[in-house]
Design a protein that fits this description.
The chain has helices at residues 3-21, 33-48, 52-67, 72-92, 96-109, 122-135, 227-247; strands spanning 136-144, 149-152, 155-159, 162-168, 170-177, 184-190, 195-201, 256-263, 267-268, 275-281, 290-298, 307-311, 318-323, 332-338, 348-355, 364-375. The protein is an alpha+beta fold and 376 residues long. The chain folds into three domains: 3-120, Serine Threonine Protein Phosphatase 5, Tetratricopeptide repeat; 136-201, Immunoglobulin-like (Sandwich), CATH 2.60.40.1120; 256-375, Sandwich (Jelly Rolls). Strands 8, 9, 11, 14 and 16 form a five-stranded antiparallel sheet that branches. It starts with a helix and ends with a strand.
């Protein structure tokens, strides 16, 4: 397709957005929006004038301004449209590999994003569909009984039975919850262009029975015992106790001990895809009493994007230690103690699960330490 014809498509698209919104697509109110709108307008004009190099520079700068905003939810549409325009510019100058890479980044941020076929060239749409096939799979979740709430990572999907058509490929944490039933958490793997099915039989929780206060019993007349009987009874109890104590072996007092393991070396945090850091612990001979943890995370300016969990040796039990709270410093030291893993074996592979569904790549886990306590 010629550059002139693609430019006509782009011009038609920009005109359509102006008509339906009364402004350019980037002109929504908010911090930095005026600068974004100005950059996008300059990029659109450069594109229509055939200055594609300048258009690319302006689109990239606009994306940078959008990324510096603090509320991604308010700027997603701006980001999606700018990324699409940048991809279309690469396509126009026949740099299809760069166009495809830009569309891949778009799908990773917004798996459900779609392009209107009336406003884009067919060949460009073919590239977009190919990216969707390479990155997205389908998830179907059913449960007995139905009506359970389904969450994938931190995103609610709805209630069972449900079918999610566009799920990013890779490993995800699936959570299913229904009042009165034990919640289910499991790790699932989504493959591109394939359907993953989960059919769950939920286990009912035992009913909570409130104990009623025992009714006051009628007072019974107590029979007085003679002093001789009382003394004889006390003496008999003392003799029995002495016999039992003489035959009982003394047991040494148990000592609280621990095993600690530290993961050395920084691990970069991926954007959108989960990051796992394993710790292998051996030599715990008894049940876990408690677990102490220390994690040092760095994500300059965007710690609020992160969601960090410790995963037990069963690969299912999670304990959240950082849940998109306001950052206070960088690097951030997260430490504490939990009894969430007391029912699990201490030996095996523990994991740190780091999710970054936010707007900014980068960051790293600099330290992951576990101290597993037990009595011996």
């Amino acid at each position: 397709m010629s550059a002139r014809r693609v430019t006509a498509w782009m011009t038609l698209f920009v005109f359509f957005m102006v008509v339906i919104s009364g402004s350019l697509p980037m002109s929504a109110a908010g911090e930095g929006t005026e600068e974004t709108a100005r950059l996008v307008k300059e990029a659109d004009e450069a594109y229509q004038n055939g200055n594609f190099k300048l258009a690319i520079e302006k689109y990239q700068k606009a994306m940078q301004v959008i990324g510096e905003k603090k509320e991604l939810a308010k700027t997603k549409q701006e980001l999606f449209q700018t990324m699409t325009s940048l991809a279309l510019t690469y396509f126009t100058i026949q740099e299809n590999a760069k166009a495809q890479k830009q569309l891949e980044d778009l799908i990773r941020i917004g798996p459900n994003h779609e392009l209107d076929p009336e406003f884009y060239p067919p060949k460009f749409l073919e590239i977009f569909r190919g990216v969707q096939r390479d990155l997205l799979g389908r998830l179907t979740v059913t449960s007995t009984p139905p009506g359970a709430k389904v969450t994938l990572g931190t995103a609610p999907l709805g209630v069972t039975p449900l079918s999610a058509e566009k799920v990013l490929k890779g490993t995800h944490e699936l959570s299913v919850a229904l009042e009165g039933y034990a919640p289910v958490r499991r790790e699932i793997s989504i493959q591109a262009a394939l359907e993953h099915k989960e059919d769950l039989l939920l286990e009912a929780l035992p009913p909570v029975i409130e104990k009623s206060q025992p009714q006051a019993q009628a007072k019974k007349k107590k029979k007085k015992l003679s002093p001789l009987v009382i003394v004889g009874g006390v003496a008999a109890v003392a003799v029995i106790a002495a016999v039992l104590m003489s035959g009982k072996k003394s047991e040494p007092a148990k000592e609280l001990r621990f095993i600690d393991v530290v993961h050395e070396g920084a691990v970069p945090i991926d954007i959108l895809l989960p990051t796992y850091i394993p710790l292998n612990i051996n030599g715990v001979p008894a049940k876990v009493e408690r677990v102490e943890f220390r994690v040092v995370a760095s994500h300059p300016g965007h710690m609020e994007d992160l969601n960090i969990n410790i995963v037990g040796t069963d690969s299912k039990t999670l304990f959240n230690i950082w849940n998109r709270t306001q950052a206070t410093s960088d690097p951030q030291v997260i430490k504490g103690v939990t009894e969430a893993f007391n029912a699990l074996p201490g030996n095996g592979t523990w994991r740190l699960l780091v999710q970054n569904p936010g707007r900014s790549p980068g960051g790293e886990i600099r330290e992951f330490m576990l101290k597993v306590f037990f009595y011996q």
